[in-house]
Amino acid sequence: MLVAWSLARAGRRWQNPAYTDAARDMARAIRTQLLRRDQRGLVLLPGMDGFEKESGITVNLSYWVYPALPALAQADPSPDWDTLRASGLALLQEGRHGRWGLPADWLCVAPRWRWSDGTPSARRRSPAPCAKRPTTSGCGPSSPTSPRSTTCA
Length: 153
Known about the structure:
This protein is of the alpha+beta class. The protein has helices spanning 2-13, 17-34, 69-75, 80-94, and strands spanning 35-38, 41-44, 52-53, 56-60, 96-97, 102-103, 106-109, 114-115. A hairpin with a 4-residue loop joins strand 5 and strand 6.
């Protein structure tokens, strides 16, 4: 997303159609290959593989680069960019937890999203950090050595 945004800006700044075309192609690839529809709109996959399981789709809210979305919408005209923005903002609100109300890094979204350890959102107010429950199963990035390993039950 950041590269597509940079190309779009470079194309405008230097009036270079090659950059603009590359931005369009990259934005279209993101839209067609990494966006998935759920009950709240669209969600952004962190990558092509490993984030869609039967138990849900794992997302990382930091991958939504909100300032880039208008440029991507201009490069690749589609209402999906506005839908992605709205669903990301909704997830940021829903995913808030802890004393400071910060959003979780990784969420497993399903018909009703769950925390990365599988606990339904309505049943926990202040979750333990995702790093405390590493696993190699589920729907999130998984590596026993990764401090941010997560799972969805």
